[in-house]
Amino acid sequence: MDRATLAAYDKQAAAFAQDWHDQPAPVDLHELVSRYFIKGGATADIGCGSGREVAWLNANGFAAEGFDASDGLLTEARTRYPELRFAHAELPELAGIAAASFDNVLCETVIMHLDPAQVAPSVRRMLEITKPGGVLYLSWRVTDGADQRDAHGRLYAAFDTARVRAELAGAEMLLDEEVVSASSGKVIHRLVARRGG
Prior knowledge:
It contains 7 helices and 9 strands; from the N terminus they run αααβαβαββαβββαββ.
């Protein structure tokens, strides 16, 4: 994880959490998860932030736990949802998560905060923690040209989608699209892949 991005999330965790929870629910994400994820399956939210989607997943039939690199955001998640499970884990390593642990893996708008050199190993690792026959949902904000940072110092890496697709070459691609996010208004790329047996 990019250190400046992580520092921004830790420093302003409460403000970021409030902003996310004040936004309209991401119904487009929820529709895709409902369509593609294995109902009742063990589910990981990688980069869960303050836990909003972990709560939604659990309330909608997906036994989910959240993982994040920001201790500040994990504190927000545990405060808001004390009955749910959250743990520290950082891409690309995701230390402590065994291979083939989850039926469903969600990683919503996270990998653009990685150094571009970490994108491929992160995608590879997320596919690795997905069970054979399981489903990986991956999205990121698209940045054209050079890497950028926002006013908070968060990195928005520019990288070629082909780098992500190459790591998913052995999986069955269920969805591959670039859209304008209904919740943020930003261009995002979304991929859904089923891991081969």
